[in-house]
Design a protein that fits this description.
The complex is a heterodimer of chains A (57) and B (420).
Chain A lengths: L1 H28 E2 L15 E6 L5
Chain B lengths: L11 E4 L4 E4 L5 E2 L1 H19 L30 E3 L2 E5 L6 E4 L3 E5 L6 E3 L12 E2 L6 H14 L5 H4 L3 E30 L2 E21 L6 H7 L8 E2 L9 E3 L9 H17 L5 E7 L3 E21 L2 E8 L5 E4 L4 H16 L2 H12 L5 H34 L2 H8 L5
Parallel strand pairs in B: 9-15, 10-13
Antiparallel strand pairs in B: 1-2, 2-3, 4-5, 5-6, 7-8, 7-13, 9-12, 10-11, 10-14, 10-15, 15-16, 16-17
Classes of the chains: A alpha+beta (57), B alpha+beta (420).
Chain lengths: 57, 420
Amino acid sequence: MSGLGFILGLLIAVSLSVFITGLLLKKSNDFGDSTGSYNHFAEGSIRYYVKENNYHR
Amino acid sequence: MTYKCPNCYGALKYNAALDKMECEYCGSIFTMDEINQLYAHMEEKTSQYTDGQVKAQSQVNRENQNPDLNAANKNQDTIEKEKLNVNIYRCSSCGAELAVNGVESSSFCAYCGQPTVIFSRVEGMDKPDVVIPFSVTKEQAIGIMQQRVRKGLYIPAKLKKIDIERVRGIYVPFWTYDMRYEDDLIIRYKVKSGKTTVTKYARRAGETTFRDLTYDASRMLNDDSSQKLEPFYVKNSVPFDAKYLSGFYADRYDMAMNVIRGNAIQKACDLFVGEVMKTVPGSGHQVVSSDPKVDLLGNKYLLAPVWFMTVRYENIPYTLMVNGQTGKLVGGLPYVMWKVVVTMIVLFGVFATFIPFIVSGILGALSDSDDAPGKLIGVIIVGAIFIIIAGINYFSKVKKSIDLTKEQAINRFSKERQDV
């Protein structure tokens, strides 16, 4: 079990190092988001007339 | 025989290092084949002029009423002749030939540097409704880029010195849409119920009104680039006046409002669905049916300000953009691979010193129970795969951004204009 635990630990270490490096690279070399923060919705935003969470098809 | 640059009519010289023809005035570079093709086309046009099929007209006048503008009036900018895919006008200041491409509505004279507005391209049906004037100056735009690039951990040192090859302020044409949007959505989602996951359905029917949805109306500038530049705050726009164009380049639209209306409606749909999804519980949301109804309430023809800045690295031009209203920097620059690899190795080294021991300890402690270790192993494997995919996704986003920045189309969009 300890051998498997060690391998799984290494897997986590690999995944975290790939993720953090990718994040750092994006912050360093990629400028600008794909979407703006401007709210295009006019006053009142979305007015619902049906808002049902358990809809039966 | 002297070869003339099709962009500025400066003399083309052979650049031995590049094995290409280079214009010393505007920096344009052409292969021999391109030049041969262009001249073959020019000769064909010249023969047409000789036959009287195209009558050249020119008229030189100076705009006295607005000396700052120095713009050519409608009669002045009558197209004189067409050759090498550019239109030739007379500079209202010095009378030199002024070459503009098919959509430019303001430019500069290559000889005297005077800003010139092509009035016939901003009148009548082609007159923009509103314009967002440049509020970020050229110096500020350069400063924004320099500050950001210098902070870049993986940007090559040569690029950090930033020898900017070209900076151009260009008014980019956009259409804005006001629309009432109504939809009736069935959304599938998943929720946990004890040890199982249950699939459920939610229904959302509603309506909303969009104001000033923007979509770029330029064929040359790709949509990914223009959408990254957003938002443009259209509420801060002003009624169009040609004087705003003076001192900047400007293009008129070459994609009609009706042509890109479908794209704008899709954008409205995406925004609507995005907002609706926030109100649905659970995870794994998926729209299974929709019934959109759209009423277009109005639209405007907008000119939006953008700074295009080109830097060259390893003989490849990278064109970054700055939103001329908000100062938002858009683009991607190449990275130093060995630094990326070293970062990954160092991070792995740090994590590998303690995480495997922690995981071994936890699994050892849980070894007495029947199914707990199995569950944990499954969670770790699935979680690690998800994290790796997220990391790779960052890499691919950076690559896409870099590809967009070095794309020939965006380089041409900024480059193929008269140099001052």
